[in-house]
Structure formats: C-alpha cells, structure tokens
Amino acid sequence: MSELIIWGRGNSINVQKVLWTCEDLSIPFRRIDAGMEFGVNKTPEYLAINPNGLVPSIDDAGHLLWESQAVMRYLVRKSKTQANKDSLYPADPLAASMVDQWLEWNSTTVWPAMRPLFWGWVRLKENERDPIALEQNRLQMIKNFEMLNQRLKITKFVAGDYFTLADIPLALIAYRWFNIPIERTDFEHINRWYLEVCNRPGFKKYCSSPLT
Ligand SMILES: N[C@@H](CCC(=O)N[C@@H](CS)C(=O)NCC(=O)O)C(=O)O
C-alpha cells in the first residue's frame, strides 16, 4: 500500500488539523514541508495538485485532495482499522450533522476572527499592526467563545458527549487564543474542555509547539 503524503509546513493550523486526525486514526504518513519559508506551494508542480497554492494537500495513492476539513472527513471515511472512526465523524446522519455544523462554524465565523489576531500578534511587527482591527477581532472572538462556552456547559465535547473532528480546529484556535498577549475573558466550560483536548496525543505530538 502506498504511503499517504501530506504537503504543508508543520506550524500551519490547517496542516495541524490533518496531522492530528492521522494520529487519532493511526494513519502513517510522510509530510513534505511546503508554504511560507519552504516555498513549494507556488511551483507549477504544486499548483497542479492544489490550484489555490495553499497547504495542506494530500496524495493518497494518487487521489489528490485539498481543503483541510475535507481531508479530515475523507481520512475518517477511508479508515478501516480504527475504533475512533465511529466517533471522530460518525456514520449516523444526525450525529455527523452536529460535527459538520461546528466545523462549518469554525470556518465561517471563528477562524476569520482569530486569523487576524494570530497574524497581528505572532507574525507582524508592532508597527505593522492595526490596533482597531485587532480590537474588533478580539471582541468577536469573545462573542464566539461565549457561544462555545454555552455549548460546552451542556456537552462534554463540541459536537456531543465524545471527541470528534469538530473539536480539532476549535482546540487549535483556542491554543492560539491562549498564547497571544491579549486581554481574555475567563470561560469555565472552555477551560475544562481545553485542558482535556490538549492532553490528547495528536495535540501533544503535532500542535503544541510555540506559535510561529
Ligand atoms: N481553507 C483552506 C485554507 C488553507 C490555508 O489558508 N493555508 C495556509 C496555511 S494555514 C497557507 O497555505 N498559507 C500560505 C503559505 O503557507 O505559504 C484549508 O482549510 O485547507
């Protein structure tokens, strides 16, 4: 069987979603650095794989795929061997719809507010920051976390009572939120959930290095 190839630098949140999923499913893979200082992602060869010129992309025995959350779902559906398959992204339409709902919410609402904060505080120099935009996004993130906190008051994990794909992007975002120098509101249920998800091997192995 040919090895799964994952293109993308290890500090990318979207690459980390895929690496963490592989860990939970015990899927072996080979990662090729691409993006930012590694280049690769704007070469004609890479653009033929992913015309967006973004990471991650995968090659699974010739099946080329991009969009991190599509890749996560694909890997679960394809995985035959792991017990986690049934819980990470359940076959039952109702249970799967809850995972989808929170994954979509992550992409459309949470990451668009967190991304400028992450870039502003981690990747830009002080004189390049836009304080007004940073404050607007900080306030939006507090709103997002208020909603997530209400959810986690009634469920153990984001999509229900067990860990699913929906927890992964939100945990990665929470890690960024807790590791930038901003004023934060304390959210009891998020704190409880965050401690638990950060203890998972996929997070520890691939997602817990200092933000760069
Ligand atoms: N919606 C895409 C977004 C991919 C994306 O924006 N990737 C970023 C890294 S997180 C990227 O490739 N940036 C350019 C670079 O690294 O050079 C996904 O979820 O895969």
Q: Can you characterise this structure?
A:
This protein has 212 residues and is α+β, with helices and mostly antiparallel strands. It has 2 domains: 4-85, 3-Layer(aba) Sandwich (Glutaredoxin), CATH 3.40.30.10; 90-205, Glutathione S-transferase Yfyf (Class Pi), Chain A, domain 2 (Up-down Bundle). It is 56% helix and 8% strand. It has 9 helices and 4 strands. A 4-stranded mixed beta sheet has the order 2-1-3-4, with helices on one face. A hairpin with a 2-residue loop joins strand 3 (57-60) and strand 4. Helix 5 (93-123) runs antiparallel to helix 6 (131-154) and helix 6 packs across helix 8. The longest helix is centred in the middle third of the chain and has 31 residues, at 93-123. It is globular and about 50 Å long. The termini are far apart. The model has no long low-confidence stretch (mean pLDDT 96). It binds glutathione. Glutathione binds next to helix 1 and helix 3.
